[in-house]
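Hello forum,

I keep getting stuck at the same step: I have a sequence, I want structure tokens, and every attempt I make locally crashes halfway through. Rather than fight my setup again tonight, could one of you with a working pipeline run this one for me? It's a single chain of 178 residues.
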Amino acid sequence: MNLNQSPIWTLISTFGLMSLFAVGGANAAIPEMHRIAVDVQHWLTDKQFADVYAISQLSPGPNVLIVTLIGYAVAGVAGALAATLAMCVPTAMLAYWVSRLLTRSSHSRWPTIIQAALVPLSIGLMGASGLVLALTADRTWTAAFVTAAVAVLAFATRLNPLWLLLAGGLLGFAGVIG
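Reply #2:
Ran it on my machine without issues. Output:
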């Protein structure tokens, strides 16, 4: 088998590169993960992607678990390991290198400027992630309305998000949301 056609190699190259641009964490890369996994590689359907995301968020541990689940869907345990390491190792190495550089130049202004510039970038990427997930998961007007209502409630109140999750789960269990 050609190395370029290997699903393991595709996972490694895809998530290795993606990890370097996931400013704000793995959730910031959700739109690109969706594009690659659903539209480009056809590893998952929209529904499967939404399900994988939901499972990754409900599971304890880091939110990068979505990559592990995508890798597992593509190539089993080896794919899960390859995708997870590809998403984590390059970023960890870059973070280590940048932290050493910032420590050495702690008296300079440019580290503060770079950090301040990354905040709106991270917020924008996470907002795009939310939009992609809403478009992926909301297949009915009822689901779209519930998503919008929960977003407004989460933004406007101090209501614990677990209550919102519970309400959504109960609505889904009751068959109101499909």
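The first helix runs from residue 7 to 20. If your local run keeps crashing, start a new thread with the error log.
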